[in-house]
Structures are given as C-alpha cells and as structure tokens.
Amino acid sequence: MKTAPSTAALGRVAALALATMAAACEGPKPARDAAVPSWACAAGWVRSTGGGCGPAAVLCARGEDGDPDDCARISASADAGAFVLAADGGVRGRWREPGEPGGPPAVLGDPRVPAADWAPDAAVSSCPEGWTRSSDGWCEPNVRSDCEGSSLPLPARRCTATGASSCPATEFPQVPASVDPTLVRRVRAGADPSMADGSEARPYATIGAALAAAPADGWVVVGAGTFRERITLERAAHLVGLCPSRTRIESEDPGAAAVTNVGHPLELRGFSLSSANVAVSHEGASATLERLVVEAAVFGLRIAGASTTAVLRDVAFVSSDARRPNAALAVLEGASVDAESLSVDAPRFFGLYATGGGSITVAGSLVRGATGLASMQATAGAFSAGGRLTIRRSTLAQNAMFQIEAREGATLALEDVSLSCAGSCSNFARVMVRERATLDASRLQCRGDSGACVSSAGRAVLRAVKSAVESAPAVGNAAFRWIGRGASGSLEGATLEGPMGGVQATEGAQVALRSIAIRGSAVAAILSTNAASVDVTDVRVDDARNDGLSVSAGGASLRATNVVVRGGSAESGREPCALCVYEGGTLSVERARVSGALHAGLRASTRGEATLTDAVIEQTRPIDLAATAEQNRYGAGVRLEAGAATLSRVTLSDNVAVGLVALGATLRASDIAIVRTLNTLGRGAPTNFALGALLLGNGSEARVERALIDESEGYGVFGWSARTISLSDIGVRGALSDTSGRYGAGVAIRETGESELRRVWIDRVQNYGVALVDNGDVTHTLEDILVTHVAPSREVQSVAVAAVGGRTRVERLAVHDAVAAGLSLIPVNFSSEFAPPVVEARDLWIGGVRQGRIRCADGGPTCVPTGPFVGYGIYVHEGSLTLERATVVRGGFGFYAHGGAIAWRTGVVRGQLDAAGAWRLAAPTLTDVALVQNARDDVLAMQELTAMTTFGLPTPL
Asked: 195, 211, 218, 323: which one has the fewest Cβ atoms less than 10 Å from its Cβ?
C-alpha cells in the first residue's frame, strides 16, 4: 500500500516531470516526448526511441527500441566502440568472440596446440639384426640361456664359438693350406720330449718348447690337453689350440701371465686360459685373439702400449670362486682393441676396462654380473678413465653400481646397447659419465628396477638419440641426469617408462631435449633445479606420479615447446602439478595441452615465474575426489602462490573447483578462455571458501586482457585482498551459483587496493553481475561494462552492479534484463559493516530490471521459496551517487533512494512496468531528469517502509 506524498513533494515532482530540455543528439531524430532530454551518445551506443542512449548490442537487437537510423549506421567493427550488435546477433565491438582476431583463443580448437593423442617420434627406430621388437616397442636382445659348456651367451640368440661343437674331429687344429709346412710346430700333451721335432708323429710336449723351436712368424698348433706353464713369446707367432673346451693353458704363478707377449705380432686362438694373475698380457704389437675362454684373477686380457692393437673375436670370460678378474678386458696406455662376440660373466669389478688413453670398440657382446665388494669400490660392466669406449649391438646386465662408467675425459659411444638390471643392482646410474667425459648414445635401452639410466656430472657431456628406459616400481629416480655446472648435452627421441623414467638437470647443468615420451615417472618427468637450464621440444608425459615438467631453486630454468601432459597421481602428502615452477625458477611453455592433471595444471609458487603461450589445460582434478575441506588440495587449471605467470592464448576447460587462482602472485594474462569450471566439490563437500573460474587474492597483482570466462560454477572472477586487479576486454558468460546457492557473481572484488574493469561483458550470471566490496579509500574504475541476464540463485537476491564501500568511477555501464536491482549502493545488510561508498557514473543504460522470486533448483525439503523481489533500476541505501546521462527503462521501480546523497544530472526514467519511476525516502538532487510513462506514479515518496527486501552478498564477500 502506498503512502500519500506531501504537497511539497508533489510540487517538486510536477516541476521535474514538466521540465523541457534542448536535444543534443546529432542527425535525424524520431518524434519523442518534449519533456524527455537528449544528449550525445557514447561510442558504440545508440539513441533510444523513447529517449536517452544505450549500447547498440542491446538496443539494436530485435524487439528493442534503438533508433533505426543509428542502428543502421553503426559499424560492427572494434572501432565502433564498446559493444555493438553484429548481423548474426552476437556481441561485437571491443568484445571479440573466441577465435576472432584480437579475441580470446578458440576454445579447445586452437590449431597451435597439439592434439590429445599426439605423440613425439620417440621410439627406438630400428632393432639390430637378430633382435626382435616387442609389442611395447622394446628391442629384445634375445640372450640365450642354453649355451653349451664353455660357450657363453651373446645377443641375437648366439653363443660364443667356444663350446664343444666348435672342436674339430682331427687331433690337431687345421693350418691354412697357404702356410709353409716348415713353419709349423705341433704340441700334444704327454708327448715324448726327447723325440720331439714338432711333426704330427713327434710333437712337442709343451707349448714353450714348440715356440722356442719355431721360426719367426711360425705356427704352433696344440692338440687336446691341459698345459700348466708360463708362455712368453720371443718372436712373432701363431699360437692355435684345438678348441677351448679341450685345450687349456694354466699358469699358477701369481706374478706372471699365462701368456706374455711384448713387441711381437701374435695370433692366439682356440684355447681356454687360466691364471691367478693375468691370462694374456700383450703390448707393443698387433694381435688377433679368437675363440678363447679366459679365466683369471686380475686381468683376463691385458692389452697395453701406445703402439699396441688387438682384434678379438668369440672370447668368453668366465669366473669361478678362484678366478674372478678385477677386469676381464683391460686396455691401457693408448692401446686399441676391436672386439666382437665377447661374453663376460661375473667379473669382480669391470667387464671392459679402458684407461690411460686405451680404446675399446666392441660389438655383438654381453657383459653381466660385475658385483664389486662391500667397500663399494667402483664397479661397472664397462669402464673408461681417459680412454675411448665404443659399444655396439651389445647387452650389459646385472652389473652392480654401474653398467658403464666413463670419467677423466673419456669418450664413450653407445649404439644399440641394452642395459638391464633386476634385484641385485644398486641405485646408482646404469651409465655414469663424469669429470669431463663425453657420451654419444644412439638407440640406448635401460630396463630394470633401480638407478638412473644415464647420469652425467663434473663438466661431462651427454648426448643421446632414440633411446628407451623401462623401470619396475621399486625406486623413483631420473632416467637421465645431468649434475653440476658444466654438465651438458642432449637427449633426442627417447621413451622413458616406469617410476625411474624422467629427466633431471641440476646444479648448473645445461640440457636440450627433443622428442621425449615419459610415462609413470615417480618424482618429476622433467626436472630442472639449482641453476640448471633445460630446453625441451616435443615432449609427452603420461600418468606422472607427482610433477610433470618442474623447475625450482636457484635460478633454474626450463623452456618447453610442443608439450602434452596427460593424467597423473600423487604420493601421500604431495601436491602435484603438470607444469610446475618453484623457488625462484623460470618456466616457459609454448604450445601445450594438459589433460586430467591432479591438483594443478600449471603451478607457480615461491617466486617462481611461468610463461605459458598457446596452451590448453583441461580436466584438472582435486587430490581427493571425495572432497576435502582443505583449499590447497582442490584442483586448479592454473595455481599461482607467491609466484608470477604470464599467459597468452591459453584455454582452461572443465577444471574441477578453480580455473585460475592467484594467491599473493603476479598475473599477466591475455587472450585466454576459462570455460566450464566445475564445482562438483560443493555436492556434499565443505564449501567454506570461494570457488570459480578466476580467483585473485592475498596481495596479488593481476592484469587480464581479452578473456572469455564461460560456464563457471561459483564466481566468474573473484578478487579479495588483492593489491591491484585490471580486467579489460573480458566476457563472463554463464557464471552460476555453486550448488550451495551462496556463491556466484560475474565479477566480485572485495577489499582490493585498486581495480579496473574496462570493456567487460557479463551475461547469464547468478546473484551478481559486478560486486565491489571495500571498507576504505579504495578506487574502482568501470568503463564500458555490459551486464545482461542476471538472476538470483536459491538463497541470494541478485544485483547487476553492487558497490559496497570504496570509491567507484563508472563510464558507460549498461544493464539489461536483471532481477531485483541494476545498480545498487551498499545493500542493506552491509550498512553497519562497511563505510558508505562513493560512486561517480556517466552514461548508464539500465533496462528490464524486474521483480522475481527464488525458485529452488531441486525442490527438496531445504528449499524455502522467498520473495517476490522488487525490481530497482538504481538502488541507493547509503553513500554518495553522482550520476550523469543515465537511462532507466522498463523495470520495477526506476530508482530507490533510501539514504545518502544522490546528484543526478540528465537522464530518463521511462516505462516502468509495475511500479513508480522513483521511490524515495531521501530527497535526491535531480537535474534534467525526466520520469515519463511509468505504470504508476512517477515518484512515490515515503517517510518509512513497513517492509524491506534484504539484498545480500554471498559470504565470503
């Protein structure tokens, strides 16, 4: 029921309603009420046929009342102004649709971002002959377990030619037909030395006697038997045994080799050799060593000297309790060995040993079971200190500590090498490269349950292409590691699987990675830490246990291009992320897709700095999907905590709880889309803090340009206790209240040092379009703001734009189709908590603010419908409002002045459907403002209200 206004009030209203003003709009003007003022419209706005100005995006739509001439003339380009309506009905002007030039990225459709099923060319490209490719891409070396007797296994299902099947049926080994018979001397165990002349009929009884009798470059051929003697060559010789399984040389002298040769060309083949010291010591000449079984306690074969060369074929190094060599093959002091078909079984420390400039090239070989001592003296299947070691088509397995070690400037080359270990190996690297050593590897494979695949340190250089790592779930470790300032190198075409799988660079190392696929890594798939620098191109990470790409501490950096990170899990107490930067590190990622990560897609914290360009982050999940009250365990597409991030052309989609959150951080973002932010945690889970698409708080500084925020549960943008917030060219669409019905707004900013909103379109939101809540001398700037279709949720009445405390400057604000209130100064329930706001506004258009009623979404027992809501174009409870050039049309009440100071110059309140043009307790100052064609009174003045609807902002606003 209305209370009759006083005579004085009626007089003031009559004088106001009958005032006439000069028209200011240029161009042809439709006929209108002479009492309605006219003024020049802002850029992108058009004249209303009923008076005043409004945005072309609304007034030129079908069924609205934009001036036909203006609507026909205005351009849909960006130059036309704030917001205009395109021919297809979309909003244009300063706002661009996703994918348009100058607009946010096309949602999930940017061709610069790799597809979800993209994978780099990372598999081992080919397998050696005799190896087979398994279904998972692994090259199986096919090591046999059924080699006969003194024969040992080799890759490609071969055995060394040292078994019984290699023995001829003759009494003595055959000599090539081209050999002069006078050069041949024969030896048979048990022969009569008194009759010996080296013939078949009268052979020598010892090898030493035959060598002494043979001429230079002579041939000593030895039949079956065991010869316990020391052999020292005095001249070039060919020493040939019948076969290793039947012809054996034993030396029991602990100070001497079984065979010693200094300075003479030597051919040695067809023997089994045993020594308590060295089986064969050769130096100063060339040698050919073939079809040998070697058993020794110190060195199996010792090849030394700068002018020394040796060719080795089919040599089996065996171990026994008394004969476990410190090194099976030792190449020293500049000697050079070319070897093929070596099989080394259980040496004490080293299978292959090259030092002092020694060089070993080995192919088609197997080294396994180097066990070491409890003192942890260095142990390796192959070792080089200052030498050169080349291994091809070979397998090293079950060697404790290291499979291969290179140091002191050594050069190591690996091609088609398989390294494996299970159970008996330590947590050290399979390949250790350090102290200025260099590794070049091609098609390197590591398989087992412990230790890194390759580790480099101490100014070492590690380069690898087409490599693979597969580890069992025993120990988490990096597959490839670079450690120390000066350590450097590259890895190209690698597949790394299992908890060991990953790459680590630390303490100043510099690394380049290309075409890398990593699955199931336990710590971080790729980690750069402590001043290291990593450059990555073409990488895919699947199912990481904890972090994907991570950089931290001491100025470390990581640059990545063309990245896919999918899935992930977390160990107890860990808060993982797909892309992570911590503690002063720098992370730069370009062209990336992150899907299904846990906790955070991108995380920058503790002074970490991240740059993300051309990226999609989708379906990030909270750590506990059953919901938890801990905020820091919720999921976020991007999470910034005391860090900094620069984002460009980034889409955040279908992330659970938060799209992007900045806590005490610095954010620079442009051309971004945050779509379908899901608050599933609200369903039965604690919701004691705000969730939504873009959250900015705790002292953050944020600048966001050209962004689409679409379909978020909770807030579109929520800023609280931030230092500064700047939003420009932003679209917020479909920001719905969370399932509690308490939280929801297009843009909500609370107690922030300074905020700027320019060219922002807010459409289809619940509770609030824009809410500014401050208690102090804080300045907010709103320019070119369009708020459309604002409705209440279950518990909160809606306001298109609410100012609570602080100082707000508004230029060009338009509200279309809202429930309860268009522009509101300090809703009633904030009056005792916040200082009255001060608002200066120019060029406002508010239309279609109507009454409404809360309708419960579920209709359940907790749903209590309330209302109806009285619709106010402008609602002022307390504070100061200075208003110039404003139009309020077709709503409930045009404006409601309860208290505070109102100064309104030039405007129209027209065509209110259900109530008066103005409803006031306090007397505002109105100049050149017309109230016309309203359904009831133009002005309803009251001394008191018997009932008042409460306008509330959601906690935590």
From this structure: 195
